[in-house]
User: Fold this.
Amino acid sequence: MEVEQNQACTELLQLVIDGQATKEQHQELMKHLEECESCREEYLLSKVIKESLKSHVKANGTPKDLVNSIQNKISDTAASIK
Ligand SMILES: [Zn+2]
Assistant:
């Protein structure tokens, strides 16, 4: 599978992860994540790392649960802006 890493979406991803994105940029990314597998994986990975640093997920959940819940959130957000 050929997935070209798009510079623009990488920057958008970074903004959202850093919490510096506007609401519009955030929604744009959510929509984009539905279609772009490489960004979605990168986003999920960053989220999982951030969340696990923040809230010691080991105690009450596996990173896999976290990935699932984030994936659901992406679908919900993307669905709501379609
Ligand atoms: Zn992308």
About this structure: Helices lie at 7-17, 23-35, 37-55, 63-80. The pocket of zinc ion is lined by residues 6, 9, 32, 36, 38-39 (CB under 6 Å). The chain has one domain: 7-80. The chain is about 75% helix and 0% strand.
